[in-house]
Amino acid sequence: MRIFAYIQNMTYEEAKTLSEILKAISHPIRILIVAELREKDKTVGELNHVANIDQSGISRHLSHLKAAGIVTDRRVGNHTYYHLQNSCIVRAFECSMEVYNNVQKCSLRFNNKRKLCD
């Protein structure tokens, strides 16, 4: 598979950049923002409902995502719309949910004690 060959030959600098991207999405509110943007472009006001924070808080999270190249924005009149730069980030989230579901199953199997799954 191509992705495994790429990871095998990854340089330190590439790993460092990937680390920055993963850090940018490592906040629960940012995960919820990305999940919202997978459906359609939205303004800060339209994203307010994802968390109980004000518009400036949403804007701060969007700036982290924008700096990492995950979202971009476009102005239409007085509104700024945010959208996913590349939808492949959604596949990364789906993969993460598979890992999460596996961990949940393992936790139940081992009476909620965290153990490696077999």
Task: Give an account of the 3D structure.
The chain is mainly alpha-helical. It has two domains: 2-86, Winged helix-like DNA-binding domain superfamily/Winged helix DNA-binding domain (Arc Repressor Mutant, subunit A, Orthogonal Bundle), CATH 1.10.10.10; 87-118. Helix content is 58%, strand content 10%. The protein has helices at residues 2-8, 12-24, 28-37, 44-47, 55-67, 88-109; strands spanning 71-76, 79-84. Strands 1-2 form a two-stranded antiparallel sheet. A hairpin with a 2-residue loop joins strand 1 and strand 2. It is globular and about 50 Å long. The model has no long low-confidence stretch (mean pLDDT 86).
Core attributes:
118 residues, mainly alpha, Arc Repressor Mutant, subunit A, 2 domains, two-stranded antiparallel sheet, 2 strands, 58% helix
CATH architecture of the largest domain: Orthogonal Bundle
DSSP strand count = 2
What is the name of the CATH class of the largest domain? Mainly Alpha
Q: Provide the succession of SSEs.
A: HHHHHEEH
Please bin the fraction of helical residues.
55-70%
Structural class: mainly alpha
**Could you say how many structural domains there are in total?**
2
What fraction of residues sit in β-strands?
5-15%
Outline of the structure:
By secondary structure, this protein is mainly alpha-helical. The chain has helices at 2-8, 12-24, 28-37, 44-47, 55-67, 88-109; strands at residues 71-76, 79-84.
